[in-house]
Amino acid sequence: MNAIKGVLFDLDGVFYVGGKLLPGGNDTLAWLRSQGIKYRFVTNNTTLSRRALVTKLQDLGLNLDENELLSANYAGVLQLQKLGLKRCRLVLAEAAQIDYPPSVEDNPEAIVVGDIGNNWDYDLLNSLMNQILEGAALVALHKGRYFQTDKGLMLDSGAFVAALEHATGKKAHVVGKPNPAFFEMGGALLGASPNELLMVGDDLINDIEGAQNAGYHAVLVQTGKYRKALVAQSQIKPDGIISSIAALPSYLSSLIKQ
Q: Which terminus of the chain is more exposed, N or C, with fewer CB under 10 A?
């Protein structure tokens, strides 16, 4: 395989879980810098603005800057601009709405769906369904199935996006991982071709399959939402599996020796 010139990292489940930083992340980043290997963070987080997410991660102790982060939430803003949609109903956490135009309740051109935790209910889904049937576009910041927390796996917003797609017969514009355009945006930030890029994540569909479909080398970490049984039964096969983000330097060094 080609030499790795850039690395894209998932964040939640790779560098941290809940409110706790996982060991070895900063050491791995320092090693990459010493080797001249560029990196960026790509995340499907939709609960915070990009700046607020960076502040949260810095407070946890992770060494990163705002220009190193591409989030699905920020990519949603770019997608709306690309589609020319301004009148939007934002089904987003309040903190995630900062970069968007003000939300509207009536006659939206688009409905933007992210993570709103346990605020989902029948009335909300029914209202969104009717607005989509009336012509509003459905923009999903991602279609993740579940995510890891201190309490275990939690249902993600992708389940509600799928429900709206099923009820309306309309497909969502999906912004974040595993959308190929999202990986293209991340790769463009690193200035490398797909076969020179490596993705590191804990999600078989969003991280591994999405990256492989974009032409990247993809490595699964055994932290976060990783479950041995799910990997064994999946048709998706990572190019490599490592115990944690701390093991990435050894993994990359072994590739260089091959």
A: C
Q: Which domain holds residue 223?
A: 6-44+178-257
Report whether 146 contacts 202 (CB < 8 A).
no
For residues 165 and 98, what is the distance between their CA atoms, to the nearest angstrom? 26
Task: Report H helices in 10-111.
Answer: 25-35, 50-60, 72-83
**Has residue 182 been placed in a domain?**
yes
244: left (phi over 0), alpha (psi -120 to 50) or beta: beta
Sheet of 173-174, strand order: 88-91, 110-113, 137-140, 173-174
Residues 42 and 8 sit within 8 Å (Cβ to Cβ): yes
Picking from 51, 67, 68, the residue whose alpha carbon sits closest to that of residue 15 is 68
- First CA to last CA across the chain, in angstroms? 9
Residue 57 within any structural domain of the chain: no
On whether the CB atoms of residues 87 and 107 are closer than 8 A, the answer is: yes
Chain centroid to Cα 254, Å, comes to 27
Report the relative pairing of strands 146-149 and 197-201 from DSSP bridges: unpaired
Check whether residue 92 and residue 170 sit in a common domain.
yes
Report yes or no on 90 lying in a domain. Answer: yes
Spatial distance between the Cα atoms of 140 and 8, rounded to a whole number of angstroms: 22
User: For the whole model, what pTM was predicted?
Assistant: 0.81
pLDDT tens per residue across span 54-98: 999 999 999 999 999 998 988 898 889 888 999 999 999 999 999
Kind and range of the H or E element at 190?
helix 180-190
pLDDT in tens, 25-48: 999 999 999 999 999 999 988 888
